[in-house]
Amino acid sequence: MTFNTRYRSVFAALMTASALIAAQPVAAHDEQHVALDIPAQPLAQSLRDLANTSGHTVLADTDIVAGKTAPAVHGSYTVGEALALLLAGSGLEVVEAGNAYAVRAAKPGEPQDKQILVTGTRIRGQEPAGAHVITIDRTAIEQSGLATTQSIIASIPQNFGGGPNEGTVGFTERNGANSNLGYGASVNLRGLGANSTLTLIDGNRLALGGGGGTFVDLSLIPASAIERIEVLADGASAIYGSDAVAGVVNVRLRRDFEGAETSFHSGFANGFSEFQASQIIGTKWATGHIMVAYEFYGRGRLGSEDRAYATEDLRRFGGPNYDQPYANPGTIIAADGSSWGIPKGQNGTNLTASELTPGVTNLADGRTQTDLLPETRRNAAVIALEQEITPTVTLRLLGMAADRHSNMRTFALNSPVTVPTSNPFYVDPIGTGQPVQVEYDFRDDLGPPVDESHVTNWAASGSIQAKLGEWGAELSGTYSREREQLDSINLVNYARLAVALADPNPATAFNVFGDGSHTAQATVNYVRGSVLQIDRSRQSTAGLKFDGPLFALPGGPLRLAIGGEYRGEWEGFNETDDDYSLTPMDGGTAGFPLLRDVLAGFAEVSAPLVGPDQGIAGIHRLDLSIAGRYEHYSDFGSTANPKLGVTWEPVAGLALRGSFGTSFHAPGFDDVRQGQGLNQFVPLPLANPSSPTGTSNVVALFGNNPAIGPERARTFTAGIDLRPSGIRGLVLSATWFNVSYRDQIYNPAVDIFNFLTQPSRFASLISASPSASTVSGFYASPYFFNPYDISAGSVTYVVDARNANLAGTHLEGIDFDLGLRRPLAHGSAELGVSGTWLQHMDQQTTVTSPRVSVLGTIGNPVRLRMRGRATAQIGGFGLASFVNFTAGYTNNAVTPSEPVASWTTVDFQIAHSLGWIGGPLKNTKLSVSITNAFNRAPPYVNDATPYSASGFDPEQASAIGRMIGLQLVKSW
């Protein structure tokens, strides 16, 4: 029989809407992706549905498909990939016949077509029961007009922009943003933390970036080499191990690409530009194929001067003025503490006390000469090889390498400088003849502080896959390394500055009393400081897996995957520091390198309990999956995690699903680090309302608790997928999720001065009336440090301010996606909206502290994020439009709390295939995209940090503004 595509015109209103939207031209036959929503049903019907949806002819003899059932296939796949999923375990194979596909019985001794491995399962050719995988395919990537992997993933409503990302550096310390050593980009699903999302490349773990090794750097992955991105927003430690608390992001590469493709992209915004060029080449032969891709990406810096809200003076927005007292000219603080403003328009060489302005503090905007986004240059390459060694054994290799340089102007961390009377420019406002302090901005002398980062990453993975009858075996290995170097330059070396300020020679002394720079260049160079930090991370994995059918069930074969993994002595983290800002010193490698061994075993069962052919009323199909994983870590112990998933289809077109599982995040290398310079026992006077004197002396413990262990989570989901037969192309999916995250690693030292003023909150960390032997033990420790000279006999409390498993988060919400896809006379159109609606997000910082709702507050996810889409493909033209909505929230970091408005942006794209022109433009696509087309500025936020401030929140909004992009793609 032959299943042929039949096109029907969509109603007039949809055609009118499609004229306003954008999509990429249809790709070549091998690369075309089709959005599929095929339920579990008889195989013959599934093949018919695939042909009708894809527009391709699928040939199959009625006899060989009779009585066979096919699993559900939901997502975006090529026709070949979809057929591999539909035919998995059927004993059938597919071959290409011209522009058609033919299904036939597999020949004895020949391997069947390869089965697709879907994110969320270890069993090939299966979709995990109870799960919902979000897919961003190649077409959606091209339609978005976004040039980088991090910007593509940032558009997913489930992703929260807080944490280590390019735009948060220097604007917030929330969510670990300050750990971004190399100006990389992370994923933060659900807002549970970048280290709670597992990021994979073709199913492989990579070396971690960031201070302490906290996240996979998405910005190193070339977007032009991505086939699709699969997102499982559900706990998955039973499948993948550590980090999959909030979910898994699996970036799939274009391994099967055939031909050659050259692309160029240029984007322009006010004060900002980017350029991308890529080349991908792939070829196949009888027993294998190879793909090679290279991409260059470069962009200029986005300066604070180009955005009005990038300022510390927020009065124009109705906020306060956070301008800093470090200005040029500066301010003199006399011996009695009085302030005296240094006048403008003079060089400081003949300044007198009478020229100073009493009671005035000169202010300056610390955001001037800083950047919102760094200047970046990145080169990345990928190579993937697959070679059949024998008809039943296949070798797969993957290599990746990336190199990125970034340059970003940052704000200065200032402190007053002391000027002795020996300084030839010394001025004493009150005539005491004592040293004075000057609050002074050194940027006119040294230039703006600059962070120069250099990141290199490379990875290699390989596997040998063997067919053992109906079973498959896979032996795999991965090794990757990342090196991050951060040079912070144009800083002040305060040790050398003290020497230059005490210098009595006016030709060589440092002058901080003028307007501008009036110090000899040699002296300026002498006091110029810097900080160098180098982090090295590595990741290695070896694994062995078997999967295949065990026995027949009514709905199909019960399939099992079982195996183990070992991450050995090559997994580790190392850090070195050289600080030339306070005084020349070598930070050394105290506590490093950090290494660990990890041994894991896992098993997963997929059980189709009821199939469509059984004719059971109320149970069209019933699938069950059970998975479990055990891991042992050499540095903290063991953990075991199960997962259960079920999908029930009462009738065709309606699926109800649910899952339960536990997950964990292993403590990071910095969390388990111990040693001199990190651990400290410090006597401190703390405010204590219950004390007659108002204070009490304590011994505070700082560093890492040696008993620190994994963070743990329990996740429930329940969902519905509706595909009514009466409305062809309509899909509604909704997933309720509930995450209880406990034993989160928290640093209570940030609240050390509140320990005794909030005793109920910190009760578990306070020990009253410690014994004399306990206190003396702390005083005798090599970690002891006594800056306040407090005697042991006066200590009345011991407070534990070490990092430990103290905090917890409870999160509940609903993911949803509604889409309608219809064929047109010469193409297709789709309307839809996806989003995340959060209902609860509660946190507690210690086991005794109360739960506090943080949903919709600054530094946390908002209640609602949505992305609407309208796309159409009509002949050689593609149109697309996207509407992005971020709900308003509350800025409770200021007193009183302030509301933050919602933010809505609109993106457009139009694309056209130039093939009709012929000649050099044959197989060429040209697209024009506009992101944030109406140039909506981020909503105003009074966002102050201990070091600076700004008028917007980079965790919830982008500062780029309207970006116009041009892209040319040539297929050879």
Detailed description of the structure:
Residues 1-31, 108-113 and 582-591 have low confidence and may be disordered. Helix 2 (43-54) runs antiparallel to helix 4. This protein is mainly beta. A hairpin with a 2-residue loop joins strand 14 and strand 15. Among the domains are: 2-105, Phage tail protein beta-alpha-beta fold; 676-707 and 756-800, no CATH class. The chain has a 22-stranded antiparallel barrel. Strands 19-18-17-24-23 form a 5-stranded antiparallel beta sheet. Strands 1-4-8-7 form a 4-stranded mixed beta sheet.
Brief description of this entry?
Helix content is 8%, strand content 46%.
Strand content: over 45%
Strand elements, count:
53
- Number of helical segments with 4 or more residues: 12
Gross CATH architecture of the domain at 2-105 = 3-Layer(bab) Sandwich
Q: Give the overall average pLDDT.
A: 88
Structural class by SSE content: mainly beta
Helix content: under 10%
Low-pLDDT sequence parts: 1-31, 108-113, 582-591
Dominant shape: globular
The third-level CATH topology of the domain at 2-105 is Phage tail protein beta-alpha-beta fold
Give the tags.
8% helix, 5-stranded antiparallel beta sheet, mainly beta, 22-stranded antiparallel β-barrel, globular, 972 residues, Phage tail protein beta-alpha-beta fold, disordered N terminus, 53 strands
Give the topology, please:
Elements: E1 2-3, H1 12-18, E2 34-38, E3 41-42, H2 43-54, E4 58-60, H3 62-65, E5 69-70, E6 73-77, H4 79-86, E7 92-97, E8 100-105, E9 133-137, H5 138-144, H6 149-154, E10 197-201, E11 226-232, H7 237-240, E12 247-253, E13 259-269, E14 272-285, E15 288-299, E16 302-303, E17 331-333, E18 339-341, E19 357-358, E20 371-373, E21 375-390, E22 393-409, E23 417-419, E24 436-439, H8 443-446, E25 450-468, E26 471-492, H9 494-502, H10 521-527, E27 528-553, E28 556-567, E29 572-580, E30 585-588, E31 594-595, E32 598-610, E33 621-633, E34 637-651, E35 654-665, H11 669-672, E36 680-687, E37 695-702, E38 711-722, E39 730-746, E40 766-768, H12 772-779, E41 795-800, E42 804-824, E43 827-844, E44 852-853, E45 864-874, E46 877-886, E47 889-891, E48 898-900, E49 903-913, E50 924-931, E51 943-944, E52 949-950, E53 963-971
Parallel strand pairs: 4-8, 10-12, 37-41
Antiparallel strand pairs: 1-4, 2-6, 3-5, 7-8, 9-11, 11-12, 13-14, 13-53, 14-15, 15-21, 16-20, 17-18, 17-24, 18-19, 21-22, 22-25, 23-24, 25-26, 26-27, 27-28, 27-29, 28-32, 29-30, 29-31, 32-33, 33-34, 34-35, 35-38, 36-37, 38-39, 39-42, 40-41, 42-43, 43-44, 43-45, 45-46, 46-49, 47-48, 49-50, 50-53, ...
Helix pairs in contact: 2-4
